[in-house]
Specification:
Blueprint (H helix, E strand, L loop, with lengths): L7 H20 L6 H8 L3 H7 L3 H12 L2 H9 L6 H17 L3 H13 L4 H20 L7
Helix pairs in contact: 1-2, 1-4, 5-6, 5-8
Length: about 150
């Protein structure tokens, strides 16, 4: 099933997030200017402000869009295991494999922690929590205990 193509405004916003992501990883948040983002996205400064109120809003979009929870949580919903121990082992194996493919996660989180003092983590946590609660519900119905 193919996703609908992005409208022009959505495509521009996605391009801004893509180039900002690359610049933030390479230069950090404070080392990246709005001008650099605009130039890399091939858009005017005014064009950027049509999509985002400022650089921090772009960072929030990068953090939300590029954080691997959107890939990892669906992966964890397919975790198998009859017992709690088997379930945790399978989940850990899948998690390590997935995160091994996303080496940018630590860089994203360091930017968030160092340059923002973790200010956006509560909103990230709020987005993730409902999914974690579903996983916790599955886990609690497994037989046995985890040591």
């Amino acid at each position: 099933m193919n996703a609908e193509p992005l409208r022009k405004g959505e495509a521009t916003q996605a391009r801004i997030v893509d180039v900002a992501y690359a610049l933030f990883l390479r230069q950090g948040y404070h080392g990246t200017s709005m001008r650099q983002i605009a130039d890399a996205a091939e858009i005017t400064m005014g064009g950027i402000y049509n999509h985002f109120p400022g650089k921090e809003a772009i960072w929030e979009a990068v953090l939300t869009d590029r954080h691997p929870y959107s890939e990892i949580l669906p992966l964890l919903t397919t975790t198998t295991g009859e017992s709690a121990e088997a379930y945790v082992r399978d989940a850990a194996t899948r998690l390590v494999a997935a995160l091994g493919q996303r080496r940018d996660l630590l860089h994203l989180m360091f930017i968030e922690l160092v340059e923002f003092d973790g200010a956006h983590i509560p909103s990230l946590y709020a987005a993730i929590t409902p999914h974690l609660l579903q996983l916790a519900d599955v886990f609690t119905h497994k037989a046995g205990q985890v040591r």
